[in-house]
Amino acid sequence: MNTINICGIPFNIKEVDEIPPDIPGEVIHGEISHSRAEILLRESLPKELKQLALIHEWVHGVLVMIGRTDLSDDEIVVQNVALAINQTFEIKEEVEEWIEWKDFLINEQKRRQKNCSLKETENE
Length: 124
Description:
Number of helices: 3
CATH class: Mainly Alpha
Number of domains: 1
Structural class: alpha+beta
Largest sheet: 4 strands, mixed
Shape: elongated
Radius of gyration: 23 Å
Strand content: 15-25%
CATH architecture: Orthogonal Bundle
Order of helices and strands: EEEEHHH
């Protein structure tokens, strides 16, 4: 079973077919239960939405744990923080991939220069 840490407490992550809505007709992507230390995620969500839903529920959990239930009850605040966190990590991954690619190119260029130098030395 997958877990995520929220302020030192492991919360189980479960994927389910459906999460019963509070309002009829509402579609719920995720839900956190503090009493069960559990986060439910809608299984049918695409990977990107599932990731965002998990971060959204994590933000709810953090805010409750630090005593800010007023902010945790504000879905706009929670969603905006979740979006910011999600985008930050996406940008971080893109930057890391770019740095890895850049390092690869630099190392490849050094290797080729070394090989050229060795060939020149052999030809002398």
